[in-house]
Amino acid sequence: MYAGRRGNATAKRYARLWNRALRLGVLPRRWVSLEVVGRRSGQITRFPIGMADVAGRWYLVSMLGECNWVRNVRAAGGRATLRRRTARPVWLVEVPAEERAPILKRFVKKAPGGRPHLSVDRHEPVAAFEAIAADHPVFRVLPAV
């Protein structure tokens, strides 16, 4: 469904369905709808996304690597909204590649849908995730100031 790191028609239908479910709050709290201003359209775009939690902090992981939501977040200066029943303005700060490995490992452990998109098995040690860390942007979720 994600040839060329872009969702096809089926992926887009699923995304709309997941976004509706997330607005109702029927899924675990690690699943959210990311809302960010589109870098070209200027319109709010929504992406259902799973978060990873490490040491009490929450992170957004791009299972597809450099994709639209990542580019939109960067263009918006990290300003975004996470939605689960209610909207929560957040500040997303990109994590340097050398710090991403433990976050990626936690993500594949907790987000089964992301596993096929990362080339390292969830049972591998953290060191194995260092090889792919530069290919998968990760953003720390902070409260908006």
Task: Summarize the structure in words.
By secondary structure, the chain is α+β, with helices and mostly antiparallel strands. It is 26% helix and 30% strand. It is built from four helices and six strands; from the N terminus they run αβββαββααβ. A six-stranded antiparallel beta barrel has the order 1-2-3-6-5-4. InterPro entries: F420H2_quin_Rdtase (IPR004378), Split_barrel_FMN-bd (IPR012349). This is DUF385 domain-containing protein.
Short characterization:
With 145 residues, the protein is of the alpha+beta class. The protein is 26% helix and 30% strand.
Features:
145 residues, alpha+beta, Split_barrel_FMN-bd, DUF385 domain-containing protein, F420H2_quin_Rdtase
State the separation between the terminal residues, measured CA to CA.
36 Å
Question: How much is the average pLDDT?
Answer: 86
Strand pairing plus helix content: what structural class?
A: alpha+beta
Please state roughly what percent of the residues sit in beta strands, choosing from under 5%, 5-15%, 15-25%, 25-35%, 35-45% or over 45%: 25-35%
Number of helices: 4
**Stretches with pLDDT under 50, minimum 5 residues:** none
User: Could you state the order of secondary-structure elements as H and E?
Assistant: HEEEHEEHHE
**DSSP summary, beta strand count:** 6
Strand order of the largest sheet: 1-2-3-6-5-4
Q: Main sheet, how many strands, which sense, barrel?
A: 6 strands, antiparallel, barrel
Helix fraction by DSSP (H/I, runs of at least 4): 25-40%
Organism: Cryobacterium algoricola
InterPro entries: F420H2_quin_Rdtase (IPR004378), Split_barrel_FMN-bd (IPR012349)
Protein name: DUF385 domain-containing protein
